[in-house]
């Protein structure tokens, strides 16, 4: 930062701050897909089998991948939309505020407007609004909003593709727009951090009252916590609160908490705890898989006869670790 400050002092008559208010600097005030994506063990082209058991694709490996896909699917489409919008020049830049739009794609029934505001040297707030193409400007509704801080190196220079921040997806508002997917419900609050090539990447996602695909008209809450070190394994905690008991006479929501950990080779372990709702006590399930994602160890607290394998097959994950979410 010192070298950067000296440079600004030397150029004080030109004004270093102006460099922070050009078109590209406002683009750097937005999150990218790479900053928010959850990465999971890859299957190397191996398909997931529909049958589970020892020597078959691990059920909870598949569930871990599915959880990451759920979060990525909920966030990446909006980030793709933002990236498409800012490929165009902004409509205006006035002081610390840049605006893209209002803009309507030729075959779209929705008009979008993106506003990015610089709040500090490398920090921004932003807001994405939409309305029906034929509606007045007063009809704009906010479907996505957040804050972002661009990461900088030791000289105070921004590092492209790195940063941290948070944003809120409001599917209740997006459903009011023409052509919106009416299955999108509730909200998602996302916190992310990817501040450098050597830093641990993390994503936290809080889904509130989203659609429960397994229950007609049902909704559920879900929480996800992900982190991964560059070139290494990772871990993903997720908790789903829904009525897992199929008996219609028991309608309370149970708590399904899963913690998955994996190495860079893909080998990993998932520890599951089921509690609350209409359950009497707690139940646990544990599964380990090898580098080919094949189930090698399985244990069920409420029915030991279903288990198989030796805990030694879990390698570096011989001890269960349960989610604390």
What is this structure, in a nutshell?
The chain has 325 residues and is α+β, with helices and mostly antiparallel strands.
Task: Explain what the structure shows.
The chain is α+β, with helices and mostly antiparallel strands. It has one domain (2-317). The chain has five helices and 14 strands. It has helices at 2-10, 23-27, 33-36, 59-85, 171-174, and strands spanning 92-94, 97-103, 110-118, 123-132, 141-152, 158-170, 187-194, 201-211, 219-228, 234-242, 254-262, 268-275, 283-289, 295-300. Strands 1-2-3-4-5-6-7-8-9-10-11-12-13-14 form a 14-stranded antiparallel β-sheet. A hairpin with a 4-residue loop joins strand 3 (110-118) and strand 4 (123-132). Mean pLDDT is 85; it is low at 1-18 and 43-52.
